[in-house]
Specification:
It is a single chain. The chain is α+β, with helices and mostly antiparallel strands. The chain has helices at about 5-20, 25-40, 45-70, 75-80, and strands spanning about 85-90, 95-100, 105-110, 120-125, 130-134. A hairpin with a 2-residue loop joins strand 1 and strand 2. It is rod-shaped. The model has no long low-confidence stretch (mean pLDDT about 90).
Length: about 130
């Protein structure tokens, strides 16, 4: 079997596996393997193929790390909830349940000054707990 076919099979397997993880790292490594496959197809030696795969893999990994640090994480999704209005269903001693997006959520007051007779807004999200305030 030709070397370029092995690289492309590896690339396909990595990209297919990426579809189950959603991290983008395996996609980068799949692209690196595909590039090494192209290098093999063009007749470059094994050392050149490995160098090409390594350069693309390292560059892609560094780019993904920079993107994640710049705010491409799951925490961004929670930021969409901040500031949204919730409706109190039951409340006692600074804790209770609120209705938000058609479901009941556990909630706690941001501080002791929260007045549940006034509209409450989401101020923070801790897992499945909403921290609310006026």
């Amino acid at each position: 079997m030709s070397t370029y076919i092995i690289w492309w099979i590896l690339a396909f397997a990595l990209v297919a596996l990426e579809l189950t993880t959603g991290t983008f790292y395996l996609l980068v490594y799949g692209l690196a393997a595909a590039a090494a496959g192209i290098a093999a197809w063009l007749g470059m030696g094994l050392v050149a193929q490995l160098v090409i795969a390594a350069i693309i893999g390292i560059a892609g990994t560094l780019a993904l790390r920079k993107w994640r640090r710049a705010g491409g994480t799951d925490e961004d999704l929670q930021d969409l909830d901040i500031g949204q209005l919730v409706m109190v269903e039951n409340w006692k001693d600074g804790r209770g349940q609120v209705k938000y997006r058609g479901a009941l959520w556990d909630a706690e007051a941001r501080d002791a000054s929260v007045d549940v007779s006034k509209p409450l807004y989401i101020r923070a999200v801790r897992g499945t707990l909403l921290v609310v305030g006026n």
